Amino acid sequence: MHTNRRNFLKLSAVAATATAFGGLGFGCKAKTATLPDYAAALDPKWSKQTTSVCCYCAVGCGLVVNTSLKDMKAVNVEGDPDHPVNEGALCAKGASIWQLGDNDRRPDSVLYRAPHSKGFKKVSLSWALEKIAHNIKKTRDATWTEKNAKGQVVNRCDGIASLGSAALDNEECWAYQTMLRSLGLVYIEHQARI
Hints:
The protein is α+β, with helices and mostly antiparallel strands. The chain folds into 2 domains: 37-100, Phosphorylase Kinase, domain 1 (2-Layer Sandwich); 110-193, no CATH class. The protein is built from 4 helices and 8 strands. It has helices at residues 5-21, 92-95, 125-142, 170-182; strands spanning 47-53, 62-68, 74-79, 110-112, 121-123, 144-147, 153-164, 185-190. The strands form 3 sheets. It has a 3-stranded antiparallel sheet with strand order 1-2-3, with no helix packed on it. A 3-stranded mixed sheet has the order 6-7-8. A two-stranded antiparallel ribbon has the order 4-5. Strand 1 and strand 2 (62-68) form a beta hairpin. The longest helix is centred in the C-terminal third of the chain and has 18 residues, at 125-142.
């Protein structure tokens, strides 16, 4: 089939118009609108609204979280229109943030893989916290520097570093920073700066 440029452009315009407006539903009857079942859960007598901050990146978008008063699960998460950063808008990750709490594939226990082991095993949270505390103490004691080469007192730990998270707010960052400094850490960084 031989065609010229003008006919190709006409055909393209007709195809684009048909594609854009073809699915509008001419001749269809409108259904009466019904609210989904979860919309009733957003009523203040069934849920509690709280504000939060998105945990995905360093932007810090504000969220409004509706929590069910019956089972304390998040029933709806949306952008906070009063927040100065995002003014109610959310990216794709922020819009699906409710999946963090309502997800059947979310880990429900602590997994531990021993050195040179091929697999993970389930352990209790108290055992894992004890193991973490033991490893921090052992590493801190092994890499503690009381005085530098000039004989100046430095009291620092050179064997542990920390990379902070943008999901923490200012108060949590302050508490975390205080804990790290009390351990003597000097290699402290934040993901937003990298």
